[in-house]
Amino acid sequence: MFYDAFAALIAQAGDALETRDAQHSDDPRFRREGRQIATFLRRTGAVWSDLFTALQAETRVLEEGHQAVNVKLRAAGCEAVPLRPRAAGLGPLASSSETEPLERYRAINRALDEVVERLTPRAREPWAKEALGELRASLARAAAIQGQLVDRMLEIR
Predict the structure, then answer these.
(1) What residues have CB less than 8 Å from 101, skipping those under 6 apart?
(2) Taking the model in full, what pTM does it have?
């Protein structure tokens, strides 16, 4: 997941910096790695506060798409796909304030995967085709939110 990747990359950068302190080298690859780490950290710092805003906005867009598709599923006599926390048996999530933002984001993505699995076999039916189209549109809006963040990061040298 896009937002989880930041934590992993920051951890890797920290590990690499620690290793670099122990073994300095004039090797071009070693120096390039140092520049890449510095660039990544500058870029992440430049968008850090926007990460949380983007996560919230993307989650909202995906939830709206999920809700719209669930309306179509119910109208077609199919069971809706609830949002579920990762731990099985805890029941559906009732609101975005019930869990931390990354878990909410993960839950909506898991639910959307399930929606796609449910709709794909029925994709030739007009209602399912329309629902998949709406879902693709919400995924495109969510990707645009991430894209704006990445564009801002790439502006930093």
Answers:
(1) 52, 55, 56, 59
(2) 0.81
